Amino acid sequence: MIACDIHDYIEITCLYRIRVALTLKNGQVLDGIGTTTKTESMPSELNNPGLKRELLCFMLTHTPSGTMGRDESVEVDLMDILSMEALEENRHFSRIEF
Question: Is residue 74 within a helix (H) or strand (E), and if so which, with residue range?
Answer without folding.
Answer: strand 73-77
